[in-house]
């Protein structure tokens, strides 16, 4: 999936499709016309080496639609929570796929006229859940606290820009990130603002998207629009350290685009992260000291297993790196230009979705394709969500599928 690029100034959102180093829009039908590489055809004689069972499918609203955000469900206590940019939010039984409750923020009345207090909530950041608190951000600059048991509202807070990455709930704080480079700390009980971090400058050109925040050991970690890995104190938003993931070098503005748009992973005391036009790297979490790094350009998140780091580069080749030093373990280019999601590790397999609604399972040992399922004919943008032995996948139209390796 080609990353949408945001440009400041006129506050326009544009899709750059002239370069093969960027990805095509979902639903783009003429690759020749757009001057980009067509997706690699799927092998018609493919024979799976492992069995995958689709457990159920369901839908929540229109999903992310044409917003360019990467919506995926959240899981807690046997329940999935999902939302859509057309104002739907729902709780789903993770075992059966049955809807437990569903809420809509649609305006009432003819042709949209009606109660202005019920205007659509353009859900785009999240959801995230902890205990009985469900939190979600919106395209129109709100963060909502919702009762996870029944979907009833608890509080709302207003911010200065879109919230398109998932907020994080940590103790008595909710941390949310906005498209203008700010991070906010809110009281989880009532939504009151406790602090704001506004020291990042957003470049003129950057990817449309924010990688998920990571909160651990009283620290907030994230990758910013300038290609930096940043650590803040959780209690007050004070910066602790930052390190460079991408330097933004090149002759053109596009070449210099450097954005850390994926999640930050933590295993033990080691952080793993990557950036567009940058590196995949490991850092010591407490100090920020670099441990290793190597060139690798990606606009999606990574995932890790006991001995490897997995990533999808900006040409949709799936890579595995040795976790201890970053050496290549394998590369699979059978899905090149199929504009894959971030990888998710499910047991001995790496799971990715593609622009035509297929879900691919690759062996972690050598990257060989092991199985393939099709959720829908719509693009999958969001990283699959692994819970135990089940993986949940969501496409851009809000269709969610649950898959398990082996039989029922």
Automatic annotation (TrEMBL):
<protein>
    <recommendedName>
        <fullName>Outer membrane protein assembly factor BamB</fullName>
    </recommendedName>
</protein>
<comment type="subunit">
    <text>Part of the Bam complex.</text>
</comment>
<keyword id="KW-0564">Palmitate</keyword>
<dbReference type="InterPro" id="IPR011047">
    <property type="entry name" value="Quinoprotein_ADH-like_sf"/>
</dbReference>
<feature type="domain" description="Pyrrolo-quinoline quinone repeat">
    <location>
        <begin position="86"/>
        <end position="332"/>
    </location>
</feature>
<comment type="similarity">
    <text>Belongs to the BamB family.</text>
</comment>
<dbReference type="InterPro" id="IPR017687">
    <property type="entry name" value="BamB"/>
</dbReference>
<keyword id="KW-0449">Lipoprotein</keyword>
<dbReference type="InterPro" id="IPR018391">
    <property type="entry name" value="PQQ_b-propeller_rpt"/>
</dbReference>
<dbReference type="InterPro" id="IPR002372">
    <property type="entry name" value="PQQ_rpt_dom"/>
</dbReference>
<keyword id="KW-0472">Membrane</keyword>
<keyword id="KW-0998">Cell outer membrane</keyword>
<dbReference type="Pfam" id="PF13360">
    <property type="entry name" value="PQQ_2"/>
</dbReference>
<keyword id="KW-0732">Signal</keyword>
<dbReference type="InterPro" id="IPR015943">
    <property type="entry name" value="WD40/YVTN_repeat-like_dom_sf"/>
</dbReference>
<comment type="function">
    <text>Part of the outer membrane protein assembly complex, which is involved in assembly and insertion of beta-barrel proteins into the outer membrane.</text>
</comment>
């Amino acid at each position: 999936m080609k990353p949408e690029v945001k440009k400041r100034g006129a506050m326009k959102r544009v899709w750059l499709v002239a370069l093969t180093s960027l990805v095509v829009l979902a639903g783009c039908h003429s690759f020749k016309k757009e001057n980009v590489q067509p997706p690699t055809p799927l092998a018609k004689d493919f024979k799976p080496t492992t069995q995958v069972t689709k457990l159920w499918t369901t839908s929540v609203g229109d999903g992310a639609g044409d917003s360019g955000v990467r919506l995926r469900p959240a899981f807690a206590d046997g329940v999935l929570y999902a939302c859509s940019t057309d104002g739907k939010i729902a709780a789903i039984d993770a075992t059966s796929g049955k809807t437990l409750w569903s809420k809509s923020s649609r305006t009432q009345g003819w042709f949209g006229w009606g109660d202005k207090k019920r205007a659509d909530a353009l859900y785009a950041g999240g959801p995230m859940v902890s205990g009985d608190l469900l939190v979600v951000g919106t395209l129109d600059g709100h963060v909502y606290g919702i009762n996870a048991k029944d979907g009833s509202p608890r509080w709302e807070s207003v911010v200065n820009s879109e919230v398109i990455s998932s907020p994080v709930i940590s103790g008595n704080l909710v941390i949310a990130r906005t498209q203008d480079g700010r991070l906010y700390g809110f009281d989880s009980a009532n939504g009151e603002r406790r602090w704001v971090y506004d020291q990042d400058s957003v470049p003129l050109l950057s990817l449309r998207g924010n990688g998920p925040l990571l909160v651990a050991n009283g620290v907030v970690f994230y990758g910013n629009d300038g290609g930096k890995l940043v650590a803040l104190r959780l209690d007050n938003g004070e910066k602790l350290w930052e390190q460079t993931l991408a330097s933004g070098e090149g002759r053109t503005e596009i070449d210099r685009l450097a954005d850390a748009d994926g999640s930050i992973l933590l295993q033990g005391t080691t952080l793993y992260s990557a950036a567009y036009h940058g590196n995949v790297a490991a850092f010591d979490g407490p100090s920020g000291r670099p441990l290793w790094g190597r060139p690798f350009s990606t606009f999606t998140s990574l995932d890790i297993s006991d001995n490897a780091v997995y990533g999808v580069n900006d040409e949709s080749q799936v890579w595995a790196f040795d976790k201890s030093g970053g050496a290549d373990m394998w590369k699979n280019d059978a899905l090149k230009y199929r504009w894959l999601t971030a990888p998710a590790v499910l047991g001995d397999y790496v799971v990715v979705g593609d622009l035509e609604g297929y879900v691919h399972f690759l062996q972690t040992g050598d990257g060989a394709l092991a199985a393939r399922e099709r959720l829908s004919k719509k693009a999958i943008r969001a990283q699959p969500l692994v819970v135990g032995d089940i993986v949940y996948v969501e496409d851009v139209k809000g269709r969610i599928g649950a898959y398990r390796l082996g039989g029922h």
